[in-house]
TrEMBL record:
<keyword id="KW-1133">Transmembrane helix</keyword>
<dbReference type="GO" id="GO:0042773">
    <property type="term" value="P:ATP synthesis coupled electron transport"/>
</dbReference>
<dbReference type="GO" id="GO:0003954">
    <property type="term" value="F:NADH dehydrogenase activity"/>
</dbReference>
<keyword id="KW-0679">Respiratory chain</keyword>
<dbReference type="InterPro" id="IPR001750">
    <property type="entry name" value="ND/Mrp_TM"/>
</dbReference>
<keyword id="KW-0812">Transmembrane</keyword>
<comment type="function">
    <text>Core subunit of the mitochondrial membrane respiratory chain NADH dehydrogenase (Complex I) which catalyzes electron transfer from NADH through the respiratory chain, using ubiquinone as an electron acceptor. Essential for the catalytic activity and assembly of complex I.</text>
</comment>
<feature type="transmembrane region" description="Helical">
    <location>
        <begin position="23"/>
        <end position="43"/>
    </location>
</feature>
<keyword id="KW-0496">Mitochondrion</keyword>
<feature type="transmembrane region" description="Helical">
    <location>
        <begin position="145"/>
        <end position="167"/>
    </location>
</feature>
<dbReference type="Pfam" id="PF00361">
    <property type="entry name" value="Proton_antipo_M"/>
</dbReference>
<feature type="transmembrane region" description="Helical">
    <location>
        <begin position="116"/>
        <end position="133"/>
    </location>
</feature>
<comment type="subunit">
    <text>Core subunit of respiratory chain NADH dehydrogenase (Complex I) which is composed of 45 different subunits.</text>
</comment>
<feature type="transmembrane region" description="Helical">
    <location>
        <begin position="63"/>
        <end position="82"/>
    </location>
</feature>
<feature type="domain" description="NADH:quinone oxidoreductase/Mrp antiporter transmembrane">
    <location>
        <begin position="112"/>
        <end position="204"/>
    </location>
</feature>
<keyword id="KW-0830">Ubiquinone</keyword>
<dbReference type="GO" id="GO:0015990">
    <property type="term" value="P:electron transport coupled proton transport"/>
</dbReference>
Length: 205
């Protein structure tokens, strides 16, 4: 995972240290290289799990999501260059930094083994997304859209947090790698449907 996260983090100093006329070319080409590098995950994860640590790993489900995330950044950079022409150079760099930060948080979200860490990283993606919507949104209602986006997502994620705390109290762990080793399985009752709905509420919203 460090093979993808560390190069993604290096996009931040590359953005701010690049000359103004070369900034878009440098960041876009470098992000394309990261996208090509992420394709390795497809071959390393046939149907097994590639463990990087107790907190981060990838499998056949998370690998395509990480690859999709790394490919979205250069495509967003290509699509937004024309839209950002009238912005100042500092605003352009802030915008690119928000996109890079969003990519880093999403990669860590999709590779998180600990459900609480997944929840924190999932909520952390709201910050750069909210800044991008409210500052560089095309529509005049972008402030209202950002406000609705923030509150709907936060309110929808509260049932998810409650469900995670409940699962932690029942099983003793929220780590995917340790779930098979727990001796306290959830009771097969009708309340499991409510628990499932609470876990899905944030994503449904």
């Amino acid at each position: 995972m460090l093979k993808i996260i560390l190069p993604s983090i290096m996009l931040l100093p590359l953005t701010w240290l690049s000359k103004n006329k070369n900034m878009w070319i440098n960041v876009t080409s470098y992000s394309f290289m990261i996208s090509l590098l992420s394709a390795i995950l497809l071959w390393q994860n046939d149907m097994s799990t590639l463990n990087f640590s107790l907190l981060f790993s990838t499998d056949s489900l998370s690998s395509p999501l990480i690859i999709l995330t790394t490919w979205l950044l250069p495509l967003m950079l290509l699509a937004s260059q024309n839209h950002m022409k009238k912005e100042s150079e500092q605003n352009k760099k802030i915008y690119v930094s928000m996109l890079v930060t969003l990519q880093i948080l999403l990669i860590m979200t999709f590779s998180a083994n600990e459900l609480i860490m997944f929840y924190i990283l999932f909520e952390a993606t709201l910050i750069p997304t909210l800044i991008i919507i409210t500052r560089w949104g095309n529509q005049t209602e972008r402030l209202n859209a950002g406000l609705y986006f923030l509150f709907y997502t936060l309110i929808g994620s509260i049932p998810l947090l409650i469900a995670l705390i409940y699962i932690q109290n029942i099983t003793g762990t929220l780590n995917f790698l340790l779930f098979p080793l727990t001796f306290m399985p959830l009771n097969q009752t009708w309340s499991n449907s409510i628990l499932w709905l609470a876990c899905m509420m944030a994503f449904l919203i």
